[in-house]
Design brief:
about 280 residues, alpha/beta, 8-stranded parallel sheet, 10 helices, globular
């Protein structure tokens, strides 16, 4: 089965200047480059990845885009731009000239204003994203979901994907508000969801049974055709090895038929991000 990792990161610690991760997170407090991931991808049959920004500046985005031009397994890049800048449309147009840019991600979870995406000042940036065929990655927490729903309803032609199931607290049973909000977002046909980031939210003692009700809800409301599998590597390594997450994901998807599993494990990412994916 061809797999595509719809969410992974690279970074240079020297660029982060006090940004996350802190030194206390020793496993992540170092540089991460394509050479660190390439062997894992080959070992586990992952044909391509989507490389996602982790700093709110364009320098980081250009660093990622430069890597994407050197390493063929990087099939798409999700970058960052100041979507409220007066020249946002021009900045987005310049980034869109880079061949593998496929989306933009404002880091909504880190912003003080939970309703940030309701600002009319975003209109020009959203129009530019649509003009250049870009997608909107939503890095949100459960409290942001009502604002994200309003944003999705205002922009039905903008493809949106929710990162990491919106990072719900992984209790024994999902919170009813999260269940309802995710179902409402799934009712918007342009909204997708990444099956990623679950084990780090659950913690080092996670089990497949603990993750199951969350994955099942996402698959039920979005359907297997709008769920994208991702690793969130290297953040993943705080709670699991790459292979362990693949095995857990296979268990979470075991009730689907083969075509549906292929869609979640790779084909949906190829379609959503406009990637030319090939097995092997």
């Amino acid at each position: 089965m061809m797999r595509v990792d719809a969410h992974q990161h690279f970074w240079r610690l020297a660029d982060r200047k006090g940004a996350w991760p802190p030194p206390q997170l020793a496993p992540l407090y170092r540089d991460f480059y394509p050479e660190d991931l390439g062997g894992l991808l080959h070992r586990h049959g992952v044909a391509a990845t989507v490389l996602v920004q982790s700093l709110p500046n364009e320098a980081d985005t250009h660093f990622l885009l430069d890597l994407s031009e050197r390493y063929s397994f990087i099939g798409a890049v999700v970058g960052w731009a100041d979507l409220k800048a007066p020249d946002a449309a021009q900045r987005i147009a310049a980034l869109a000239c880079r061949p593998k840019l496929r989306g933009l991600r404002p880091m909504l979870q880190d912003l003080d204003d939970d309703g940030w995406i309701g600002d009319p000042a975003l209109a020009a940036a959203v129009a530019a994203m649509r003009q250049h065929g870009l997608r909107f990655d939503a890095l949100v927490l459960p409290r942001h979901l009502p604002a994200l729903l309003a944003f999705a309803r205002r922009n039905p032609q903008l493809p949106i994907v929710i990162d990491h199931l919106a990072k719900p607290a992984m209790h024994s049973e999902p919170d009813t508000r999260w269940l309802s909000d995710m179902a409402s977002l799934a009712a918007q046909p342009q909204v997708h969801c990444k099956l990623s980031g679950m084990v780090t939210e659950a913690g080092s003692g996670w089990t497949v049974a603990q993750l199951q009700p969350y994955a099942r809800h996402i698959l039920q409301v979005f359907g297997p055709e709008r769920v994208l599998w991702g690793s969130d590597w290297p953040v993943l390594t705080l709670a699991a090895e790459y292979g362990a997450w693949i095995d857990a994901s296979a268990a979470l998807l075991a009730h689907l038929d083969e075509a549906q599993q292929r869609a979640v494990f790779g084909l949906n990412a190829c379609r959503f991000y406009g990637m030319a994916c090939h097995a092997g």
